[in-house]
Every structure is written in structure tokens, then in C-alpha cells.
Amino acid sequence: MQSLDSESLRKQSRFEVLPETLILHIGRFAFDYRLNQPVKMHTAVEYAHVLAVPRECLSGALDGAHSEAEDAASLPRYRLHAVVLHHGKKATGGHYSTLVRASVDDVPLSAEEDTATRWRSVDDHKITQISADQALDAAERVYLLFYVRIH
Fold this sequence. Notes:
Layout: E1 21-25, E2 29-32, E3 37-40, E4 50-52, H1 60-63, E5 77-87, E6 95-101, E7 119-123, E8 126-130, H2 132-135, E9 142-150
Antiparallel strand pairs: 1-9, 2-3, 4-5, 5-6, 5-9, 6-7, 7-8
């Protein structure tokens, strides 16, 4: 009988229909049965301003017939619109804040346009301008990612 270990298991979901807004939940909390309590996971999660959905995530209906040599530009793409952050060391407490892009449109942006005037940090009653790079600088605190489809 073959034993199953955590590295031999794989679960995969595929999109049948792509949403206009893709919300990715980063599993920051788990239950530690040794400690008998919820814990926060501080693993860094990298994310980008533009997300191309890999073919492996698309059902046959969405994927269509594509050659391997086909350019990645044909993949469905999403633009980062908001990032929800969890501040705190424990799963049982903490604080949430949001980084949000000031506008959602499909117009290609130059590096100068996607800077401080496009992003805001919202933390309770305090709203400040931030750069696009700062919106990506929360790898260990990111809790939710909101992406809007680019058509």
C-alpha cells in the first residue's frame, strides 16, 4: 500500500467563468492542534500589479486551443485594485488597513502615472498617498487581494 505524505497530494481548481473582480484570500490563519489555538502565519506572499491567469487555472472552455509558443499576453489579465492588510502577531487580535488604487480603468499607465497619485493607504480615519511600489511592499501582512479584469 502506498503511503500519502503532504508532498504527494495536490488539489487544483479551474475557472469555468472569470469574474470581473477577482478576490484572492490569503490563508493567514490556521488552527494549531498542538497548541489548541488559532495561529497567524507570517509567510511572505509576493503579488504584482498585473496578474496573468495561468492556463493551468482555466477550464477547457476558457483555455481554448493554444500552442505552447503563444505569447503570455493572450492570457486573461487583472490589475491590482486593493490590498487588505492584517497587522498583528496573533490570529486572535490585530488591526486591518487597506491600500487602494484611486481609479480603475483599462488605460495603459506609464510609470509616472501609476505613482503616489494613484494609490492611497486607508487606516481608520487616516488616508495618505503612497507609491505603487509601496502597494506591493506588504508581503507578510497581505490578507486579501482585489484584482479587476483588464479587457
